[in-house]
Amino acid sequence: MGTPYSTGAELTTYATARGITLTGDPDVLMVRAHDYVDNSNFIGTKTDPLQPNEWPRSDAYFNGILIGDTVIPDYSGGGSVIAMEFETAIAIDQGNDPLAVVDNSIKKTFDKVDVIETEVEYIDQGQEAVVSQKITRAASGLISAANNGIRFAVFNG
Q: In terms of C-beta density within 10 A (0-12 exposed, 13-18 middle, 19 or more buried), how is residue 132 classed?
Protein backbone atom coordinates (compact mmCIF):
# COMPACT_ATOMS: atom_id res chain seq x y z
CA MET A 1 0.00 0.00 0.00
CA GLY A 2 1.07 3.54 -0.69
CA THR A 3 0.94 6.64 1.43
CA PRO A 4 -2.04 8.96 2.00
CA TYR A 5 -2.66 11.75 -0.50
CA SER A 6 -2.71 14.32 2.30
CA THR A 7 -1.51 14.72 5.90
CA GLY A 8 -3.00 14.36 9.34
CA ALA A 9 -2.52 18.11 9.86
CA GLU A 10 -4.56 18.86 6.72
CA LEU A 11 -7.23 16.40 7.91
CA THR A 12 -7.45 18.28 11.21
CA THR A 13 -7.83 21.60 9.35
CA TYR A 14 -10.53 20.10 7.08
CA ALA A 15 -12.45 18.64 10.05
CA THR A 16 -12.14 21.79 12.20
CA ALA A 17 -13.49 23.94 9.35
CA ARG A 18 -16.61 21.74 9.44
CA GLY A 19 -17.04 21.88 13.23
CA ILE A 20 -15.70 18.35 13.74
CA THR A 21 -13.22 17.51 16.50
CA LEU A 22 -11.18 14.38 15.83
CA THR A 23 -10.62 11.98 18.73
CA GLY A 24 -8.12 9.66 17.04
CA ASP A 25 -4.58 10.28 15.82
CA PRO A 26 -5.03 12.17 12.50
CA ASP A 27 -2.01 10.49 10.87
CA VAL A 28 -3.30 7.00 11.76
CA LEU A 29 -6.79 7.95 10.55
CA MET A 30 -5.31 9.06 7.21
CA VAL A 31 -3.45 5.76 6.77
CA ARG A 32 -6.61 3.76 7.53
CA ALA A 33 -8.65 5.98 5.20
CA HIS A 34 -6.04 5.56 2.48
CA ASP A 35 -6.34 1.77 2.78
CA TYR A 36 -10.04 2.10 1.93
CA VAL A 37 -9.76 4.82 -0.73
CA ASP A 38 -6.92 3.20 -2.66
CA ASN A 39 -8.95 0.01 -3.02
CA SER A 40 -11.59 1.86 -5.05
CA ASN A 41 -12.24 1.03 -8.68
CA PHE A 42 -11.07 4.37 -10.10
CA ILE A 43 -11.46 5.53 -13.70
CA GLY A 44 -8.42 5.38 -15.99
CA THR A 45 -5.26 3.39 -15.35
CA LYS A 46 -2.24 3.93 -13.11
CA THR A 47 0.32 6.21 -14.77
CA ASP A 48 2.99 3.66 -13.77
CA PRO A 49 1.83 0.09 -13.07
CA LEU A 50 4.45 -0.16 -10.30
CA GLN A 51 3.44 3.01 -8.42
CA PRO A 52 2.21 2.24 -4.88
CA ASN A 53 -0.81 4.60 -4.98
CA GLU A 54 -3.77 4.48 -7.37
CA TRP A 55 -3.24 8.13 -8.36
CA PRO A 56 -1.95 9.71 -10.53
CA ARG A 57 -3.73 7.95 -13.43
CA SER A 58 -3.80 8.11 -17.21
CA ASP A 59 -6.87 8.23 -19.45
CA ALA A 60 -9.04 9.56 -16.62
CA TYR A 61 -11.68 12.18 -17.38
CA PHE A 62 -13.69 14.30 -14.95
CA ASN A 63 -16.78 16.03 -16.37
CA GLY A 64 -15.47 15.32 -19.87
CA ILE A 65 -12.08 16.92 -19.26
CA LEU A 66 -8.88 14.86 -19.23
CA ILE A 67 -7.22 14.81 -15.81
CA GLY A 68 -3.49 15.29 -16.25
CA ASP A 69 -1.40 12.19 -15.63
CA THR A 70 0.49 13.92 -12.80
CA VAL A 71 -2.64 15.22 -11.03
CA ILE A 72 -4.31 13.96 -7.85
CA PRO A 73 -7.94 15.08 -8.41
CA ASP A 74 -9.14 17.62 -5.85
CA TYR A 75 -12.16 19.30 -7.43
CA SER A 76 -14.86 20.92 -5.33
CA GLY A 77 -18.36 19.49 -5.52
CA GLY A 78 -17.17 15.90 -6.07
CA GLY A 79 -14.21 14.41 -7.85
CA SER A 80 -11.76 14.77 -4.99
CA VAL A 81 -9.57 11.86 -3.94
CA ILE A 82 -8.28 14.03 -1.08
CA ALA A 83 -11.77 14.88 0.22
CA MET A 84 -12.65 11.19 -0.15
CA GLU A 85 -9.76 10.35 2.18
CA PHE A 86 -10.72 13.11 4.62
CA GLU A 87 -14.37 12.00 4.75
CA THR A 88 -13.31 8.37 5.17
CA ALA A 89 -10.94 9.31 8.01
CA ILE A 90 -13.72 11.27 9.74
CA ALA A 91 -16.14 8.34 9.33
CA ILE A 92 -13.56 5.97 10.86
CA ASP A 93 -12.98 8.39 13.74
CA GLN A 94 -16.74 8.51 14.36
CA GLY A 95 -16.98 4.70 14.50
CA ASN A 96 -18.22 4.13 10.94
CA ASP A 97 -15.26 2.32 9.38
CA PRO A 98 -16.27 1.41 5.80
CA LEU A 99 -14.03 -1.69 6.00
CA ALA A 100 -15.65 -2.96 9.21
CA VAL A 101 -17.89 -6.00 9.23
CA VAL A 102 -21.36 -5.44 10.68
CA ASP A 103 -22.50 -7.59 13.62
CA ASN A 104 -24.85 -10.12 12.04
CA SER A 105 -26.45 -11.46 15.22
CA ILE A 106 -30.19 -11.92 15.34
CA LYS A 107 -31.98 -12.23 18.67
CA LYS A 108 -35.08 -14.36 18.90
CA THR A 109 -37.41 -14.67 21.88
CA PHE A 110 -39.44 -17.80 22.48
CA ASP A 111 -42.19 -18.39 25.03
CA LYS A 112 -41.97 -21.70 26.83
CA VAL A 113 -44.44 -22.78 29.57
CA ASP A 114 -44.00 -20.05 32.18
CA VAL A 115 -40.39 -19.44 31.09
CA ILE A 116 -39.06 -16.94 28.61
CA GLU A 117 -36.05 -18.16 26.73
CA THR A 118 -33.74 -15.98 24.65
CA GLU A 119 -31.68 -17.50 21.90
CA VAL A 120 -29.01 -15.72 19.87
CA GLU A 121 -28.49 -16.99 16.35
CA TYR A 122 -25.52 -15.85 14.26
CA ILE A 123 -25.73 -15.68 10.51
CA ASP A 124 -22.78 -15.35 8.19
CA GLN A 125 -23.72 -13.05 5.35
CA GLY A 126 -20.55 -10.96 5.35
CA GLN A 127 -22.36 -7.64 5.41
CA GLU A 128 -20.13 -4.60 5.34
CA ALA A 129 -20.48 -1.26 7.09
CA VAL A 130 -22.56 1.43 5.46
CA VAL A 131 -20.46 3.87 3.43
CA SER A 132 -21.02 7.53 4.27
CA GLN A 133 -22.84 9.64 1.67
CA LYS A 134 -20.05 12.21 2.09
CA ILE A 135 -17.46 9.64 0.97
CA THR A 136 -19.60 8.74 -2.04
CA ARG A 137 -20.13 12.40 -2.99
CA ALA A 138 -16.41 13.19 -2.70
CA ALA A 139 -15.63 10.30 -5.08
CA SER A 140 -18.33 11.31 -7.56
CA GLY A 141 -17.08 11.07 -11.12
CA LEU A 142 -13.86 9.25 -10.19
CA ILE A 143 -15.15 5.74 -9.57
CA SER A 144 -15.57 3.39 -12.49
CA ALA A 145 -18.71 1.34 -13.00
CA ALA A 146 -18.62 -2.23 -11.67
CA ASN A 147 -18.11 -3.49 -15.21
CA ASN A 148 -14.94 -1.38 -15.62
CA GLY A 149 -16.81 1.47 -17.26
CA ILE A 150 -18.05 -0.56 -20.21
CA ARG A 151 -21.65 0.29 -20.99
CA PHE A 152 -23.87 -1.83 -23.14
CA ALA A 153 -27.53 -2.09 -24.02
CA VAL A 154 -29.65 -5.17 -24.60
CA PHE A 155 -32.44 -4.93 -27.15
CA ASN A 156 -35.17 -7.54 -27.40
CA GLY A 157 -36.18 -8.27 -31.02
A: middle
